[in-house]
Each structure stands twice: as structure tokens, then as C-alpha cells.
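User: I'm writing a short report section on ligand binding and want a predicted complex to refer to. Could you take this sequence and 2-acetamido-2-deoxy-beta-D-glucopyranose and write out the structure as C-alpha cells? A short remark afterwards would be nice.
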Amino acid sequence: MAISTSHLFVLLSFAVVMSAPSALATNYTVGDDAGWSINVNYTVWAQGKMFNVGDMLIFNYPPGDHNVFKVNGSDFKSCTVPKDQNALATGSDVIVLAKPGRKWYICGKEGHCGQGQKLVIDVMDMGPANSPLPGGTPPPPPSAATKAVVSGQFGFVALVVAVLGMMMI
Ligand SMILES: *[C@@H]1O[C@H](CO)[C@@H](O)[C@H](O)[C@H]1NC(C)=O
Ligand SMILES: *[C@@H]1O[C@H](CO)[C@@H](O)[C@H](O)[C@H]1NC(C)=O
Ligand SMILES: *[C@@H]1O[C@H](CO)[C@@H](O)[C@H](O)[C@H]1NC(C)=O
Ligand SMILES: [Cu+2]
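Assistant: Sure. The C-alpha cells for the complex follow:
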């Protein structure tokens, strides 16, 4: 069977478009207008929200009043502040949800976690989301060569799939 050049071009263009970075990441301001504080029920806040890989959590509070620690499930439950970890404490802390799974955050100020200043969420992996990393030092953008290689791989896989599909018809 023969595949025309224009067919190939359409298929390759499609593959390149499909491998472009997703721009659908969401920013979640923890607690919305109430921010990161005591007297907010973060279980209620998180209810019904869909957290995906690439989304960001933004913890807003007057600097010095609170802080943010990422902890594990047992430290979350017992409100144990990790000793081997520095708090996020800028008052506008951005955390990129880089991996799927359950994530736990607490305030490290005396008594605050016990008063409910703690957040647990489940992060889903809904496909690729290219976003900057946390901490305000974005990685260098991928070089054109890297992009070409990635697109090339995607394009090749898509082409093989498409050709196989056409052969089945
Ligand atoms: C999300 O927050 C980051 C960091 O503050 C910002 O750079 C980005 O533009 C925001 N994205 C959206 C969709 O609001
Ligand atoms: C949770 O993290 C603490 C350190 O803050 C560590 O001592 C503990 O073993 C961890 N627990 C689990 C179940 O990973
Ligand atoms: C938050 O609200 C949930 C659901 O209404 C409730 O089960 C939970 O006890 C509340 N947590 C706090 C710390 O009040
Ligand atoms: Cu606090």
C-alpha cells in the first residue's frame, strides 16, 4: 500500500501538536480568601476539588504568623513538625504538585496544626503538564534540540500507530 506525502505531513503535524505542553494547570489558593490560617477547615476547602500533577498550591498568610511544612501521613496525624526540614515561610508560598499521590501539609507554629491548620489532598495524574518547579528558580527552558527530539519521538510513535491503523482498514 502507498501513503502519500501529504498524508504523512498531516499525521506528523498532528503528532507534534499532540505532544505540545499542556497549559491547563490550575493554581489553588489554599483557603481562598481566608488564606492559610487557623479557624479554617481545610478538609471542607479541599472537598470537591480536583488536584492534578502540574497544579500549584499557594499558601497566603502574613509572614511570621504561619509557615508550611510538607509532611508524611503519620506526622500529619500527630501534628509533628519535622526537624530535618526548613519551613516555607514567605507568606506566599507556592508548591507545585509534581507527583501524583496523597500530600500532607501542616503549619509548624506552636499549636496551629492541632487547631486544624493542616491540609491533606490527593493529586491525580491526568497526563503531561509541563510547569515550572517550586522555589522561584525555574529550570532552564529545554533547548530546541531537546524539544525536537521529544517531538520526534512522539511523532514517530504516532506515525507508527497511524500507519498500523491505516493498514487495518
Ligand atoms: C499560577 O501561579 C504562578 C506562580 O505565582 C504564576 O506564575 C502563574 O502565572 C499562575 N498561573 C495561573 C494560570 O494563574
Ligand atoms: C514521617 O517522617 C518522619 C520525619 O519527619 C519520620 O521520622 C517518620 O519515620 C516518617 N514516617 C513514615 C511512616 O514514613
Ligand atoms: C472539618 O469539617 C469536616 C466535615 O464537615 C469535619 O468532619 C471535621 O471534623 C472538621 N474539622 C475540624 C478540625 O473542625
Ligand atoms: Cu499557623
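A remark for your report: The pocket of 2-acetamido-2-deoxy-beta-D-glucopyranose (ligand 2) is lined by residues 72, 74-75, 82 (CB under 6 Å). The first strand starts at residue 27 and ends at 29.
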